[in-house]
């Protein structure tokens, strides 16, 4: 405390609280929810209005509300959302743990991974989900259309609306191509696909009560439950395969 502060009975100013994470990114809320989905949709195809509202209810983001009650987001909000979705998808972390990490980062701890990307505060351009075909998947993955068609014929790579493939097709093809290098052909993967479908059916049983309620809140909770349980089942299967493979030699 300085002499001047003591003479006037002033308390010394404490250290200024750090700016919440991410730092150095605009917090001007000018983005509508559709703009946010446009920013995140290409990287996280399953993100939805209800998912964003659920993450807000859990205290992971805090968008501004207009006088009319509409939500508006800032580029900083988008990067917090990207962090949450990435941790869920890549690290299988529950929201409680992600929230704790965000609190540590808000307090000044360094963020894991690369620096956040800047979102467009003026709103993202119109983004349409890519319609994958055997040809476009082959081009994106460095394989051949014949190989992609073989996966479809084997039932490993489901198609809809004729020749249209879903958004996960490139990932499936990349992995199948690596396995093919070791002599594992598409027909060998049918049992894995069937097992995955059974796991999806198990998850479906868990979320059916939420789906039947037909309310945004219930559907958001169901979506969150489906994502978490699906990731846990995938992780358990991966653990078993790794453990069993390691015991072979």
Give a description of the structure.
With 249 residues, the chain is mainly alpha-helical. It has helices at residues 3-7, 33-40, 49-57, 75-91, 95-106, 134-141, 145-153, 169-180, 190-213, 216-246; strands spanning 64-65, 71-72, 159-160, 164-165. A two-stranded antiparallel sheet has the order 1-2. Strand 1 and strand 2 form a beta hairpin. Helix 4 crosses helix 5 (95-106) and helix 6 (134-141) packs across helix 8 (169-180). The N and C termini lie far apart (69 Å).
Q: What ranges have pLDDT less than 50 throughout 5 or more consecutive residues?
A: 118-129
The fraction of residues assigned to DSSP E strands is under 5%
Instruction: Calculate the terminal CA-CA distance, rounded to whole Å.
Output: 69 Å
Query: Which strands sit side by side, in order, in the main sheet?
Result: 1-2
Shape: globular
Helix content: 40-55%
Structural class: mainly alpha
Main sheet specs: 2 strands, antiparallel
The H/E string reads: HHHEEHHHHEEHHH
Overall mean pLDDT stands at 82
Tell me how many strands there are.
4
Radius of gyration: 23 Å
**Given the structure, what is the number of helices?**
10
